[in-house]
Amino acid sequence: MTIAPLTARSRSKVRRYLPASAALVGGLLVGYLTGHVVGSVDLQGGGAFWTWVDGWLHSPGFAGTAAVLAAGVAYLAARINASAQREGVAAQRENSERQDDAARVDRWWDQMKWAIEQIDGDSESQYLGIEALQQFAETAPGDDELNLALRILSRLGVQEPATDPSVDDEDEDPAE
After folding, report:
1. DSSP letter string over 83-134?
2. What is the sign of the dihedral through the CA atoms of 129, 130, 136 and 142?
3. Are 139 and 115 spatial neighbours (Cβ–Cβ below 8 Å)?
4. Model pTM?
5. To bridge 140 with a disulfide, which of 54, 106, 117, 146 should be the other Cys (CB 3.0-4.6 Å)?
6. Closest CA to 128 of 170, 164, 87
7. Which residues contact 131 (CB under 8 A, 6 or more apart)?
8. From CA 10, how far away is CA 35, in angstroms rounded?
9. In Å, how far from its chain's centre is CA 93?
């Protein structure tokens, strides 16, 4: 019989249930040992204090105190587990946001490359590429990307919004 390696999901379950399982096993072990060790101790004849201790150890009061202590240990284990889960969820959310940001930047770069490639084409493609570059300059995900887009636009000599070459200006003289 071979044991399969733990998958990421099963490791996550082990980490999730391990503190509670350890607390349960520890509580059972302490209860068992307390019952056998304390139950076998005979403190009779050791003075008034030891007589009281012996009576208390064999009373429901001791069992109640042990139950409260066990509940406190279980509460602490649950609190630690919940805190670890909150931290895990926060880390997952942060990682997801980082991945989303990286994907957005990658999409921006792909679109930027496309716009630059359009500039090498005919006049309509150039217009489209310049318009896209201007748009990408406005939506740049960071300062480095913005500076790059603005440098490309300035090298192309574009300072103002591009004009569509297929649209005639109304101020132009038709005789020219």
Report:
1. HHHHHHHHHHHHHHHHHHHHHHHHHHHHHHHHHHHHHTS-HHHHHHHHHHHH
2. positive
3. no
4. 0.42
5. 146
6. 164
7. 161, 162
8. 36
9. 3
Give yes or no for a contact between 134 and 161, defined as CB atoms under 8 angstroms apart. Answer: yes
Single-letter amino acid, residue 3: I
User: What is the rounded (10 degree) CA torsion for 42, 48, 54, 58?
Assistant: 140
Q: 3-state DSSP call for residue 40?
A: helix
**What SS3 class is residue 81?**
helix
Q: How confident is the model at residue 53 (pLDDT cuts 50, 70, 90)?
A: confident
The tokens 């990658």 sit on which residue?
Answer: 106
Q: What is the pLDDT of residues 23-43, one digit of tens each?
A: 777 777 776 676 666 555 555
The model's pLDDT over 66-110, given as tens digits with 9 standing for 90+, comes to 899 999 999 999 999 999 999 999 999 999 999 998 898 888 888
| Tokens of residue 30, six digits | 């302490």
Structural tokens at position 21: 């399982």
